[in-house]
Amino acid sequence: MHYVCFHYEFEHGDADVDEECGAGGCPSASLADGRDRVIATARELATEAASGVPWANSETHEYLEAFAAWLSDVGGYSSGRGLVAPGNGWDVVNDALKGATMYE
After folding, report:
1. What is the pTM for the complete model shown?
2. Could you give the CA distance from residue 19 to residue 2 in angstroms, rounded to a whole number?
């Protein structure tokens, strides 16, 4: 059975299909406010950077290298902490934006 069909049949429960249910990888998460969260995170990080909040990866090239490394290791990073890796692209990007400030 396709994951989306399985999810809505057995995992989503009584939650509205247009709303994220909280199960890891819920397909409805992309319909929620993911884009707005990424925009807000990017603006927050820009404000932090402009005000001199210390980051481990403060240079642009360091930040982008850490961003790429975080994206490449998101599965290992999550499982190493007992978390479910984000299944929604917006959540992945949002976490990577924040993680790249300190990820090595």
Report:
1. 0.67
2. 20
Query: Burial level of 101, CB count in 10 A (0-12/13-18/19+)?
Result: buried
Is residue 94 a contact partner of residue 37, using CB atoms and an 8 Å limit?
yes
Helix (H, G, I), strand (E, B) or coil at 41: helix
Checking if the pLDDT of 32 tops 70, the result is no
Q: What is the DSSP letter of 59?
A: S
With 70 as the cut, is the pLDDT of residue 30 above it? no
The full set of domain ranges for the chain reads: 3-99
Alpha-carbon distance 49 to 55, whole Å?
8
Q: How far apart are CA 27 and CA 12, in angstroms?
A: 10
Q: What is the pLDDT of residues 52-96, one digit of tens each?
A: 999 999 999 999 999 999 999 887 877 788 877 776 788 889 999
